[in-house]
Amino acid sequence: MAKHLSKSDIEAVVSHILGWGDEKLTWDAVLDSIEPLISFRPTRQTLYANQDIRDAFKSRKSGIRQRGQDKPKPSNLNVAADRIAHLRAENDMLKQKNAALLEQFVRWQYNAYKYGLTEAKLNEPLPMIDRERTE
Questions:
Q1: Other CB atoms within 10 A of residue 20 CB
Q2: Interatomic CA distance for residues 27 and 29, integer angstroms
Q3: SS3 135
Q4: What is the CB-side half-sphere exposure of residue 19 using CA atoms within 13 A?
Q5: Res 2: pLDDT
Q6: pLDDT value at position 71?
Q7: Model pLDDT for residues 81-93, shown as the tens digit of each residue
Q8: Based on the number of CB atoms within 10 Å of its own CB, is 77 exposed (0-12), middle (13-18) or buried (19 or more)?
Q9: How many CB atoms lie within 10 A of CB 28?
Q10: Region of residue 82 (left: phi > 0; alpha: psi -120 to 50; beta: else)
């Protein structure tokens, strides 16, 4: 039976992908490199099924294509450049997620209007949960 990815595994994989160097980014390369991180080798489909991992992969892949070859730098600047690249990739991924959430919100807003839900109805507080505890 296949092992599921935990939250910490997903965070480790996303961070690893966002910090990917200039070498070619493929699913097989990711699988090979994350095996020591999470102590097992998941399938490509397992990684692809997770939206956060898929977004990080797409974001980093497009970042590598756009950046191309950089000029060589002294080692202390290489560390800073790697950190900047990692933060830019993470920023790009978050921008894509934000755009998707805004699109979903507009869809929900339209459907609420279409089915006659008012703003007051949508802003009603959540009901209290009766857990039937005795004291």
A1: 22
A2: 5
A3: coil
A4: 12
A5: 60
A6: 54
A7: 888 989 999 999 9
A8: exposed
A9: 8
A10: alpha
Res 74: pLDDT = 65
The mean predicted confidence, pLDDT, of the chain is 86
Both tokens assigned to 64 = 């590598």
Which residue has tokens 């699913």?
27
Per-residue pLDDT, averaged over 108-116, amounts to 92
DSSP string of 10-76, one letter each residue = HHHHHHHHHT--SS---HHHHHHHHHHHHSS---HHHHHHSHHHHHHHHHHHHHHHHH-PPPP--HH
- Amino acid letter, residue 50: N
Q: Which residue has the tokens 């200039």?
A: 22
Indicate the pTM of the whole model: 0.57
Pull the structure tokens for residue 131: 């857990």
- CA pair distance 47, 30, nearest whole angstrom: 10
